[in-house]
User: What shape does this take?
Amino acid sequence: MGRRRTAAPPPLPLRDGLGPDRIRLTGAYPTVGDHLRALAPDDDWDARFVAGEVVDRTGRPLPPSAPARPGLLAYFYREPPAEVPVPFAVDILHHGDGLLVVDKPHFLATIPRGRHIRESVVVRLRRALDLPDVVPVHRLDRMTAGVLVCTYDPRLRGPYQQLFEQRRVVKEYEALAPFLPGHDFPMTVRSRIDKRHGEPTAREVAGDPNAHTDIEVIERVGDHARYRLVPTTGRTHQLRLHLSSLGAPIVGDDFYPTLRDRAPDDFTDPLRLLARSIRFTDPVTGAPRVFTSRRTLTDGPAVAGSRS
Assistant: This one.
């Protein structure tokens, strides 16, 4: 089994679950101090320099008077902007042998990015479990709940990531959406999905299909149905777009069929999409693995079990 080269750890340790920021100097300013003060003039750079918290990639402290050579990497801590706390817990499904599998709630980002830094699965787990090397080996949208597989041993990242990239994982989702009379289930939806950078939604376009989803009805729920969705590809918003194109947009969807503006502190009406289970053969031990979400789809972000 081939192994990927793991990235070198950053020269500053995690602080409160967050790693340091990094910037590559361009030579536009004469010194490191000049460059960083121009980058963020309201930050207290003097205190950071005094504390030795501006360093190069070897961990050597950089004084503010150091020449800002083009290409020089500077690492430093920055406090992220305030965020609205997501009031739902991350449940632990498995913790051992370098593998950490969690039951992610709705509204919580998987990785720290953009407006969601501290309110992410990765940062919460690093802080709660003191595991600085926790990383997900696949992704779930912020609005999707359910099973998320992570590792906390850097040596295992490659084998588990390859498992997902090579589609040697069976992922089953559940969704609550309007019942579709007149459709024969089970069925397979195939289409070509295009997602352009900078645009919030994806779209179906003409061309050879690049997105396949198997869909069946689990049960009727009034005028709605609980659907089982098994994607064999992993396009952005694939499940949401495929159900919406059939005329059954998932309950609580902010994107399909139309965009809905949601306030940052609005945790009502979650997207009723749940990553119910993940099955695979463990690439390290060869043992079969099955992990199943304990969440109730119709209850939205209900939580149970071990928490962090």
